[in-house]
Structure formats: C-alpha cells, structure tokens
Design a protein that fits this description.
Helix 2 links the parallel strand 3 (39-43) and strand 4. A five-stranded parallel beta sheet has the order 2-1-3-4-5, with helices on both faces. The protein has helices at 11-19, 53-60, 81-90, 104-120, 122-126; strands at residues 2-5, 25-28, 39-43, 64-71, 93-99. It is globular. By secondary structure, the chain is an alpha/beta fold.
Length: 132
C-alpha cells in the first residue's frame, strides 16, 4: 500500500512529516498520479465539507482503500466531511479524522493505526509501487 497525501495549507504535510513512520511510502498527491496498488489517502476538507477537486480526480483514477482527513471543528457535523464523501463515493474505509494539523494524541493514534495496517497487510506493502 502507498500513503498519498494532499495538502493545501500545509496542515496535512506537517502531520505527515511528524508521523516519521517507516511502514508506508509517503507520496505527495497529484491529480494525475496513477498507482497500481491500494492507497491510504490523507486529505483535507475544503469549502463546506467538500472533497478538493484534485483529490476527487485522483480518487477516480486510483483504488483508495483507506482515508484519513483533516478538517476544522468549527464546521460541526461537516468536520472532515471529505472522509465521509470519499468513503461513500469510492468505497474507502475511514481510518481517522483530525483537526487542522493534528495533536500529539492524533499522531500517536495514526501511528498505531498505520502500524496495525502494516502488520495486517504485509503482503500488500511488500509489493508497493516503486516510483522512479
């Protein structure tokens, strides 16, 4: 599995860099990126709980297995709603939601989730796409 992230205001990028995890290859997202293996997608939420356009294009061309999203709790029930929409439209399982660039507890929780996914999907990880 590949870990792909999209970050508009650098909140997701800061979170990814703090993860300092060794289980999955971290790939900056691009709407045109096409990978052959399942993906763990980290994305932000835009507007009123919407999926960013470039993320939707990416999802249409790739197999999103899991999604983790950031958002702002000021939006109430639309907090990190991009995860809900990606789950509904592309069949991805929602792993986690966090606010803005996350807290230390969020980092710990996501590290534990990724470690468990790695252990559960070792075969997928070993055949992870290799980017040149």
């Amino acid at each position: 599995m590949n870990l792909v992230y999209f970050s508009k205001t650098k909140n997701i990028e800061r979170f990814i860099l703090k993860l300092d995890q060794k289980y999955f290859k971290q790939i900056p997202g691009s709407a045109l990126l096409k990978l052959n293996e399942p993906i763990i997608l980290f994305t932000y939420t835009t507007g009123l709980g919407q999926v960013p356009k470039e993320v939707m294009t990416f999802c249409e061309n790739n197999k999103i297995r899991y999604v983790i999203a950031s958002g702002n709790r000021n939006w109430g029930k639309l907090f990190a709603n991009s995860a809900n929409l990606i789950s509904t439209n592309y069949g991805a399982d929602i792993l986690y939601k966090f606010e803005l660039s996350g807290t230390n507890k969020d980092l710990e929780n996501v590290r534990n989730i990724l470690k468990q996914l790695y252990n559960d999907n070792l075969e997928d990880y070993e055949k992870c796409d290799k980017l040149e």
